[in-house]
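I am writing to request your help with a piece of structural work I have in hand. Here, with my thanks, is the record as I have it:
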Amino acid sequence: MPGITILGSGRHVPGRPILNDELSKVMDTSDEWIRPRSGIAQRHYAAEGEGVSDLALPAAERAIERAGIAKEEIDYVIFCTMTPEHAFPGSGALLGAKLGIPGVPALDVRQQCAAMPFSMQLADGLVASGAARTVLLVGAEAHAGFMPWPWDVLMGETDRRPTAEEWDFASRHRGTAVLFGDGAGALVLRKSEVEGHGLIGAINHSDGRGADQIWVPGGMFTQRHYWNASIDSHVPTMKGKELFKSAVTLLPRVVRELCSKHGVPLEQVDWFVAHQANDRINASVRQNLGIPEDKVPSNIARYGNTSAGTIPILFDELSREGKVKKGELLCFLALGAGLNWGAALMRL
């Protein structure tokens, strides 16, 4: 039985790009420090008051237009984000309302950077069970909310310099803050009409023993007042060396596991569409698997890590540039906080 395939894709990033050297106005960093460690040259940030459903709206509209369907044909929304507008409600219902499709079920998924392989498996199950025919899958992030710097200085809204306290606070968190950017990607999914095409399979894993490798210490409902208001609580805490080791070990393993399960030699995969967390991670994964560099596209230099948005944004770029073609075999792979990681095989 054919699995789900991608009918159309869209992407959206907010505002102007913020270059690496611009961050040196608010903390101790530079392009020479950031680029070799991550591959990132710039990123975009959501404006004050702009949430992930706002970012997702134009991406979804572009995906629907490219799919050549009416928005009323969407009968399920899967919304992936780790930076929702609210603790509750989720952002999926907000997007549905903004799209003008009230009443369509909207499911919010919290697998962070690993959202896409999990959600593709979920969407395929919804379609196979008859619960849905056409699924809108969205990944969107507004990381600006946990950035540690004075925004008025960074955005050039003032001539003042950061205070010593602001500078020290931002510099203390530079290892994570420089990595993230904001944006949204959307995919319209429907069962393939070609036997043997569509989603071939997905394998996903979770292991909470690695939860402290990257997490946000604030906002815990284990506390009577759930939001910890300490100065550092809203900024992600990352054990960089441990997280790097997890990614370069677990991602090649799950790709091999998936390809072996479905009898697909690695060399038959046309594209490895990987989460864009760090160019060094993806280079190590590629080398471990023995994959040619031109099969592992990268756009992290332009966007930074947009978490759940990275894979659909990258796919949309590849699609609109005419690089990915019908009949080609794609492997989507990602690891994120949780720890969660997985891979999905799809023949377009």
About this structure: The mean pLDDT is 95. The longest strand covers residues 4-12.
